[in-house]
Amino acid sequence: MDLKRRTFLQQSGTLATSFMLTPAMDWSQLFPGTAGPLDELLKNIFAWKDTTIEALLEKQINDPGRRWHGGLANAHDIPNPHSTSSFVVVLASVYTSEASKYHLAPQLEVPLARAVDCLLNVQYEDGSIDLYSTNFHSPPDTAFLINDLCPVYLALRRSGGAGTKETIDQLGKFILRAAKCLTVGGIHTPNHRWVVSSALSRVNEIFPDQQYVDRIDRWLSEGIDIDPDGQYTEQSVAVYSPIVDQMFITLGRLLDRPAFFDLVRRNLDMSLYYIQPGGEVLTDASGRQDSSQIGYVSRYYYAYRYMAVRDNNPVYAAVCALIEREYLDYLTRVGVLPLLLTEDPIFDNPMPQPGLIPENYFKRFLHSGVFRIRRGDVDLSVIEQNPTFLVFKSGLATLQSMRLHAAFYGDKGQFKAEQTELSGEKITLKRSVTHGYFQPFPSELIPGDGDWEKMPREEREMSEVQTLDYEVMIQEAGRKVAVEITISGVDHIPVCIEMNFRSGGDLSGSIIADEQQEDAWFLEEGMGTYQVEEDVIHFGPGKAEHKWSQIRGIWPKPQGDTVYLTGYTPFRHVVELS
């Protein structure tokens, strides 16, 4: 990705990296993305990382005698364990790496010691810490820190730094205290089980104790939440799937259980087909906070690199090359550096010569409810049981979401596919919704006190029953897509098709502004275009039989430029995308 195209992503608010690219630091000149030797990669990472250390040191809290002395605050000026732990990881990474100019630098030893002491100071007696945004006395958030800090502990111990012996001892105390809560504490989400288990395997590597392995096996007794497609329960392609892959690699490696590597392979193989042009990944089917957010394949770097070397897999190596070429700045992040610096000697082995990432396919992931179709730089996703049923990309130009709404009894009229049919490569999504009005509550069941809540609708007979049927047929051919939408069953119902384009592009065509909301238009006739640099999406033809875009019960308008096509039932319209 050239600097101009990366700048577009930054300005449109889509590039979530630790350090933004600037003209003074063009990563493509540092490292061309050939999935090369690890030492060469680290050398170029630290060429940038070293430039951040002085500014980072200035942020350390210097308030002797207070709880957060030696710690760091977040962007909201709230001192917290995660910012402090990240500070420890960064300092320890540059201190222990021969690729850094700060290798064994004495000036880092006191700040590092103070930060570790701060972690101990804010750690609770049960070994837990807080995630200040939501979780308190939190075992899973403690586990996330331990997964980062154990590699740091090992790196410091191996480095032989003259002034870090006491820091290593203090960090060991923090790890052992944390292990107390991990052996008894609970979790919130599916991935937390594997984050906790991975953390315990890391503690067990340093301070062996059978109780840690027993607790891991207790979580594993629930079974692994991976479906036949290779996807985990949360379907969080941009956040938690790569985290789970990393945790399973750790468990497989430290417990000598190679079956975990099979799980990782299955997920990585599936994830190859979630990669969109430029290295983004489809997130709209996620069940977590990355749903419909812009995410990148870069989070999978450790897993793809580890398994590329382990399996001599050229396709995995190609993904690493893509990440190094497009998102090398991601590899400076806290969760990546200590893994590359201190993990298994497998990284001493060379990467295989990169092969090719799939770019021409029609794939259905039945259990995930996702169709992925890719034709070079043209990319189509169809999602079942999701308000966003279609995502379309042509290079940087992105139709982020297509949704369908009807004014039928509030939110009951919003389209979310309940049934899917596949004929060849033609996808048909269907929904049928029935509603009406309610008769008086059965006399023999009336509670007598007039309390409405004691007279549930389920017990009432329904009358004036009406049914609305939706059918959306999607056919891709030759880098073009036809979306035929039919709604029938009840006449005269206002309908709108919502097409949301990513912010930062230019819209043109016979569009008129929606006076009721910003960044919204109606396409009256003909074809519209959305363009980002040389990348273009043509869409239409237009249809604007009314100007009501915010139909009652509609989901909130997404961020970005949104175009509406409108009409009434019986409704039929074919939207073409190219």
SSE inventory with pairings:
Layout: H1 3-11, H2 27-30, H3 38-49, H4 53-58, H5 81-96, H6 109-122, E1 129-131, E2 135-138, H7 139-159, H8 165-182, H9 190-206, H10 210-220, H11 240-254, H12 259-271, E3 280-281, E4 295-296, H13 301-311, H14 314-326, H15 337-342, E5 360-365, E6 370-375, E7 378-383, E8 390-394, E9 397-406, E10 419-423, E11 426-438, E12 462-477, E13 480-488, E14 494-501, E15 506-513, E16 520-532, E17 535-540, E18 561-568, E19 571-577
Parallel strand pairs: 16-18
Antiparallel strand pairs: 1-2, 3-4, 5-6, 6-7, 7-8, 8-9, 9-14, 10-11, 11-12, 12-13, 13-19, 14-18, 15-16, 16-17, 17-19
Determine the strand fraction and express it as a percent band: 15-25%
Quickly give the structural class. alpha+beta
The major sheet is characterized as:
15 strands, mixed
User: Helical region count?
Assistant: 15
Shape: globular
Report how far apart the termini are. 23 Å
**What is the residue-mean pLDDT, rounded to a whole number?**
90
- Count every beta strand, where a strand is a DSSP E run of 2 or more residues: 19
Helical residue percent band: 25-40%
Rg over alpha carbons: 27 Å
Q: Show unreliable segments.
A: 1-33
Question: Could you give a quick summary of the protein structure above?
Answer:
With 578 residues, this protein is of the alpha+beta class. It has helices at 3-11, 27-30, 38-49, 53-58, 81-96, 109-122, 139-159, 165-182, 190-206, 210-220, 240-254, 259-271, 301-311, 314-326, 337-342, and strands at 129-131, 135-138, 280-281, 295-296, 360-365, 370-375, 378-383, 390-394, 397-406, 419-423, 426-438, 462-477, 480-488, 494-501, 506-513, 520-532, 535-540, 561-568, 571-577. The chain has 15 helices and 19 strands.
